[in-house]
Amino acid sequence: GTHNLLWLRVRDGDVLAFDDMLITQDQRFKLIKKAANESNLLIQGVRLSDVDEYVCQINTDNVKSKLVNLI
After folding, report:
1. Residue 8: beta bridge partners?
2. Which of 30, 46, 50, 64 could bond 42 through an S-S bridge, CB–CB 3.0 to 4.6 Å?
3. For residues 32-57, b (16+ Cβ closer than 10 Å) or e, as one string?
4. Which burial class, exposed, middle or buried, applies to 1 when counting CB atoms under 10 A from its CB (0-12, 13-18, 19+)?
């Protein structure tokens, strides 16, 4: 619909992806969408420095978000 989706890293507040566009310059990050209502952030070659909380957020009237903790 008319809503926007964000993927961000909590530690530094970096926006990694916006809607269908990957923002980060880190080539290990990929945005995977198998359906219009599905968005997955893939990190290839995960490093210890990637340990953090990541948030998927959609700007509905009441912003909805899902926190993912990468350990």
Report:
1. 15, 55
2. 30
3. eeeeeeebebeeeeeeeeeeeebebb
4. exposed
Q: Which residues face 18 on adjacent strands?
A: 6, 21
pLDDT in tens, 1-50: 688 899 999 999 999 999 889 999 999 999 998 887 788 999 999 999 99
Residue 3, both tokens: 């809503």
The residues with which 32 forms a beta bridge, in sequence order, are: 40
Over its C-alpha atoms, the chain yields an Rg (Å, rounded) of: 12
Do residues 31 and 39 lie in contact, with contact meaning Cβ atoms separated by under 8 Å?
A: yes
**How many CB atoms are located within 10 Å of the residue 8 CB?**
21
pTM value is 0.85
